[in-house]
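Problem 3 from the worked examples.
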Amino acid sequence: MDNEHDIHKLWQAEIANTTPLGRKEPHQPEQPHHTEPCELDYLYDAPTIDGHTSLHYRQKEVSNKLFRQLQDGKLTIIQRFDFHHHTTSMVHNKLNEILNTTQSNDHRCLLMIHGKSHQHAPAILKSYISHYLTLHPYCRAYCSALPKHGATGSIYVLI
């Protein structure tokens, strides 16, 4: 019997830090998204995107539900930015300022208007903004806007 008792104690010690099947660990609250400014270097290598191409991107922690709300235009737009007639250098500086100073939470949505370019010209600003936002850690998701907000000439950005 002592042998059985010892085996039982050893078994209990081995499973002490495990979670039984069917039981979930308590939910850990999310940490704030960002606390320190992030500076990205000037990005020259943005791939060229057609002006009528629909854009979408999201980080893995953004839920399907939240991303769908962004795509459907259901999140309140807290600020609008029109980048028509801006250079990529000007847009770069403005994006750094926007992403590093805007408070972050699940409902912070920005509307960025970049335009579609002319029919045969590449969409330089659209390409640059898409590339920049994909690389910036404070951008949680973005997608092309609804037609009432500019369709493929604008994007909703979740920070």
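Problem 4, a separate protein:
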Amino acid sequence: MRRRSRPPRAPTVGIWGHYHGRNLGDELVVATIVDALRRRLPEARAIGISMAPEDTCQRHGIAAFPIDPGMPGVRPRSPAAEAGADVPRATALRRVARHLPGARRVFRLLRLLVRIGRELPFSLRALSLLRRLDVVVVAGSGQLLDQWRGPFGHPYTLFRWACLARMAGVPILYPSVGAGPIDHALSRLFIRSALAPSPYVSVRDRSSAEALRAAGVRRRLPSCPDMGYAYRRDGEAKPNPCLPPGRGSVGLNAIAHRDPRYWPRGSGADFTAYLAKMTEFAEWLLERGCTVTLFSSQVSADAVVADDLRAALAHRGMDRHPCLRTAFTDIETVADLVQVVKDFDVVVAGRYHSVLLPILLGIPTLGLAYHPKTKDLLHDLDLDDRCLDIDTFTPAELERRFLALADESADRGKAIADRVAARRSQVEVQFDSLFGVNIDGQQ
């Protein structure tokens, strides 16, 4: 009797990254990957590997697995707690105990023992998952850095999964990844070792390539823009990306820059100075008759900053101004973020994807760069004049750049739209390569 052949199994793709739901810039990239996979391979199955599997399942409609031990899912938290989601906070007991002689060493040892105890069973479960996957795609954004928790944060997590994937015989692909800062020698070793066996690595910008070269990565690093360029949205971009006369709607993204409640090695003085400048600029906008809406693609950490800014405006008698609004309660998903942003006439933003998204929607955008990635993004689109350094800008300079947007020609708007379309095409071609015919990860 002739044995009936089995139909080919639909591919299963892991989407790996330090995404956790409240950073909608990261979630935009994940949503773009899921959509790109479904458009090219409708029968394929996606599995998220994230910091908040329960949230990933609800948000993207895919099964999910924790990226690290001790992450069973996502639990409701206060905005202040969410603001520090990337940085472990000391409990009240630890804050008291740290003043006792030798307490710090004891806590470090206990933390290490707990981590070691969790590592082996977690790695066995992760290895079992990887053996069911055909390929793992790293969800771009800023994965190759050690800013959060040093070498044993992002770098070690990446290294662990790369080793397990190699044991399972599953390729890990790194399309349009961002890199830097990478300050520690151990971080550089982890990242070099993770990237070495990968059949595909591309970087989203020049500064990422430079950071990896400085870390000792010697492989070819082709450039491909951020995967967010390929995010598919309803409707068309605004046809006339110029500041309208009279009263305009301004989206203002004040971020937790150097905020010690959130930022690694933050500085209260630096954050206070930054917040004062943003407050002065917001007051200027309101006095001009603009509608100012506070928003962000990071809806936890920056919601706290929005409250700080409103409190600062209260000292100037402006917190109850009828044209001052806050959009954080309206933003839970990427679609919500797009819905809010699309109604702005101008955006002034610090977060990378809070800069990129309005540009994709045809909205004039000024970027306050806290990292080279924002400078690279705007330079690539020939928008250097729309980028200011977040530490050195003055409110007066920001006001001049804002007013200059009204004098820009429609021709420049069309040129920007053409460049955006070209970058989107590059990302789609990369997805064709990843999910079109090369699902096994071979170049």
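Solution to problem 4. Confidence is low (pLDDT under 50) at residues 1-7, 73-90, 438-443. Residues 103-130 form the longest helix (28 residues).
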